[in-house]
Design brief:
Elements (H helix, E strand, L loop, with lengths): L4 H4 L4 H8 L3 E6 L6 E3 L2 E3 L8 E4 H9 L3 E3 L7 H13 L10 H11 L7 H24 L13 H30 L1
Antiparallel strand pairs: 1-4, 1-5, 2-3
Helix pairs in contact: 3-5, 4-6
Subunit structure: Component of the GINS complex.
GO cellular component, one term: GINS complex
Subcellular location: Nucleus
Length: about 190
């Protein structure tokens, strides 16, 4: 069975979340567990109340079973996000954010809202940050140039969102450039 045309050019958000679930995150375990080997590596041992770093997928699993508290990453704080939003609004370029910030923050806000301080403010800042970055992306795509393209500091979700349009636009620009070169030779 083949995928619909609209899905063939980009990865779906749930697939991006799955990829992001390999990122390591810090937890405070509520249970003791020996070091355990998985396909992606060995993790543990878990000894309460000592913090441990494990993949996000494992942290989610333990959190849903009420066997750990997830420690929010440093970048998932009001201060950090507010500074990035201010930077986003005042500067021409994109501010530095973790490459998978959108996916990880969505998962953490959905699964561990009780482990995150000022969750409503963080949700609001993430939404404002996303809107500011999307506006900048759209503005940048309006000025698309075949010779030079610089989209540094975009995160994976943002790259995924613009990929279908970008691929199509670059194809048209290449075609136009080829036609112009052919006319110049005649």
């Amino acid at each position: 069975m083949s995928l619909p045309q609209s899905l063939q050019t980009s990865v779906t958000p749930p697939e991006l979340e799955l990829i992001a679930s390999q990122q390591l995150i810090e937890i405070i375990p509520l249970i003791a567990m020996e070091k355990t080997a998985f396909i992606s590596g060995a993790f543990g041992p878990l000894q309460p109340p000592r913090k441990a770093q494990i993949p996000l997928w494992m942290a989610i699993n333990l959190k849903l079973k009420k066997k750990c508290h997830i420690v929010a990453p440093e970048w998932l704080s009001v201060e950090f996000l507010q500074s990035r939003l201010d930077e986003e609004v005042s500067d021409l370029g994109f501010s530095m954010l973790p490459f998978r910030y959108a996916e990880i923050s969505k998962v953490l806000l959905d699964v561990a809202p009780d482990d995150i301080q000022n969750i409503d403010k963080i949700r609001s800042l993430l939404k404002d940050l996303r809107e500011a970055r999307q506006a900048k992306s759209r503005e940048g795509l309006d000025q698309l140039n075949r010779e030079e393209l610089s989209l540094s500091n975009l995160c994976s979700m943002e790259i995924n969102e613009i990929r279908p349009f970008f691929v199509h636009a670059m194809g048209i620009l290449t075609h136009l450039h080829r036609d112009a070169s052919t006319e110049d030779q005649l």
